[in-house]
Amino acid sequence: MPLNPQNPVSDITYLSRPRHDWTRDEAAAIHNAPFNDLIFAAQSVHRRRHDANTVQKAQLLSVKTGGCPEDCGYCSQSAFHETGLKASKLTPAAEVLAAAQRAKAGGATRFCMGAAWRGLKDRDLPAVCEMISGVKALGMETCVTLGMLEDGQAEKLKAAGLDFYNHNLDTSPEFYGEIITTRTYADRLDTLAKVRAAGIHVCCGGILGMGEGEADRIGLLVELANLTPHPESVPINHLVAVPGTKTASAQPLDGLDFVRAIATARIMMPESVVRLSAGREGMSRELQALCFLAGAGSIFVGEELLTTPNPDHAEDAALFAALGLSPARAETTA
Ligand code: SAM
Ligand code: DTB
Ligand code: SF4
What we know:
Elements: H1 12-15, H2 24-31, H3 35-49, E1 54-64, H4 93-105, E2 110-115, H5 125-137, E3 141-145, H6 153-160, E4 164-166, H7 173-179, H8 185-197, E5 201-203, E6 206-208, H9 214-225, E7 233-238, H10 255-268, E8 273-276, H11 285-293, E9 296-301, H12 313-323, E10 326-327
Helix pairs in contact: 2-9, 3-10, 4-5, 5-6, 9-10, 10-11
Bound molecules: S-adenosylmethionine, 6-(5-methyl-2-OXO-imidazolidin-4-yl)-hexanoic acid (DTB) and iron/sulfur cluster (SF4).
């Protein structure tokens, strides 16, 4: 019996070893443990593997905005939604590098470039590779999120200097079809396998607060934790409700349930960096502090995520000061 039924999160040494055979019952036992037990275990696992007072800062840039042919129910950039967003062409590499330089000056150590594409087209590869190698040359970690990949593309991204590819599973396999119909869970897993095979670090997580049930949040975490190896980065987004999207009026997730999900992710994937991603703009400092206590070790900084607002530098500087947190140095670059 891997978990003590009297106190499912008591065996910290056992929990600190990565596993890839999680059952939903085991995950639910952790997720639904008494809150204090859960947070204690999550923080204990966190401290075995990570510096508890360090939080990494990553910054996003949308390099191609809007007009996306996918129907992701949460997304401001889907052509299926009237969100008033202006669609743009791919941003020239020089502009992207200027933004990366500003992000670096603001303290970000990872720069993540996102494009509203169904998938990467070969004709866009040279421009994207120029962005990646330019950001890498600044001494930042590089990340892109460009939709699905075809055979051979991941290797070219890797050769350009790509450290991380972000591609989320978003929710449980059962709830997925309620949110996205234009591509499947299997499509997502296929791209993740290509990223892994090319030797690029995987950044893979999901969105909470889209109207899913607790079982879906647990189901998502089991899918993520049974990827082998675990994704190096696990972004946990709280839905940013965007008017005009399918999930615009979803009930926000209770803050304590959000913290439970972060803590459960932390315990199930002990070596991964769990990112408190989208949705901080709507969170109190106290809720964010609980997320850090639950094992979140990374955030997105800067006033904008891809298309929606994020806390500004002054607010985050005050939060880091109040909590005695230090920004992390880049993991993969000197
Ligand atoms: N088009 C690419 C894709 O979907 O893989 C990359 C960009 S997409 C915006 C990256 C991720 O951002 C999505 O998988 C989703 O998890 C997250 N995301 C998008 N819109 C969001 C929202 N309104 N609130 C929270 N997370 C969101
Ligand atoms: C991820 O999991 N969250 C980021 C990043 N990966 C690309 C995106 C958040 C987007 C939030 C909505 C927006 O700004 O459009
Ligand atoms: Fe397109 Fe990505 Fe938005 Fe889905 S999440 S609509 S794929 S930009």
